[in-house]
From TrEMBL:
Highest taxon of source: Bacteria
The protein, known as: UPF0102 protein EDC26_101455
UniProt KW keywords: Endonuclease, Hydrolase, Nuclease
Xref: HAMAP family: UPF0102
Organism of derivation: Paralcaligenes ureilyticus
Hydrolase among keywords: yes
GO molecular function: endonuclease activity; nucleic acid binding
Similarity comment: family membership: Belongs to the UPF0102 family.
Zinc among keywords: no
Length: 162
């Protein structure tokens, strides 16, 4: 009977190898690149927002701001862009609006949104201070970049911590 156990084991190994090959072929047929998967996962509104953030990033980099973080999330909220403008740590909120009804993109950064940004900045500040300022508390600034049909606008020091 030891021969029978050996045959069963060999059949099981063959079946396992066949299943692995079949799975690999199926995955290769359905393989989607990471970039494609990201685009598929985003809603049209998210794609517009992502495009606006890319425009804002390019504007800031052209002005000499070194972008060190993008779309950082914590319990308090999200910070769209974090940059270094010489010796100043800049937290940037990017706002996009199709039209200027209701005050436009800049007006949408209301007091509540400002407070969420400030709380989020407080969350990330210790790690950013250690990484880029040798542990010292850096000078910080809150900027807003608005993307609207008539153009892109960078509002430096859009609000302060009261």
């Amino acid at each position: 009977m030891p021969g029978e156990d050996q045959i069963i084991q060999e059949l099981a190994q063959i079946a396992q190898k066949t299943a692995v090959k079949r799975r690999r072929r199926r995955l290769a047929r359905s393989r989607v690149t990471h970039a494609d998967a990201t685009l598929i996962a985003l809603s049209p509104t998210q794609r517009v927002g992502q495009h606006a953030e890319q425009q804002a990033k390019e504007l800031l980099e052209a002005a000499g701001v070194l972008i060190v973080g993008q779309n950082l999330r914590c319990k308090a909220g999200e910070i769209d862009l974090i940059g270094l403008d010489r010796t100043v740590l800049v937290f940037v909120e990017v706002r996009h609006r199709h039209d200027s009804r209701h005050g436009g993109a800049a007006a949408s950064v209301n007091r509540s949104k400002q407070q969420r940004l400030i709380r989020s900045a407080h969350y990330f500040l210790p790690a950013l201070g250690r990484r880029y300022f040798g542990g010292a508390a850096p000078v910080c600034r809150f900027d807003v970049v608005t993307v609207e049909p008539h153009g892109i606008n960078w509002i430096k020091q859009a609000f302060t911590i009261d």
